[in-house]
Design goal:
The chain is mostly helical and about 40 residues long. It has one domain. Helices cover about 55% and strands about 0% of the residues. The protein is elongated. It starts with 8 loop residues before the first helix and ends with a helix.
Length: about 40
């Protein structure tokens, strides 16, 4: 579990990919808006 592991945050940073453990800022903003709507 480290830089070579594609499922960890460090591994995703090294390979330059995104996913559940390392979401893009665009996806983070969508999730925040969805959460805010759900609270109302």
């Amino acid at each position: 579990m480290g830089k070579g592991d594609k499922k960890t945050r460090r591994g995703k940073i090294k390979t330059g990919s995104y996913g559940k453990t390392r979401p893009t800022t665009q996806n983070l903003n969508k999730a925040k808006k969805k959460a805010a709507k759900a609270k109302k």
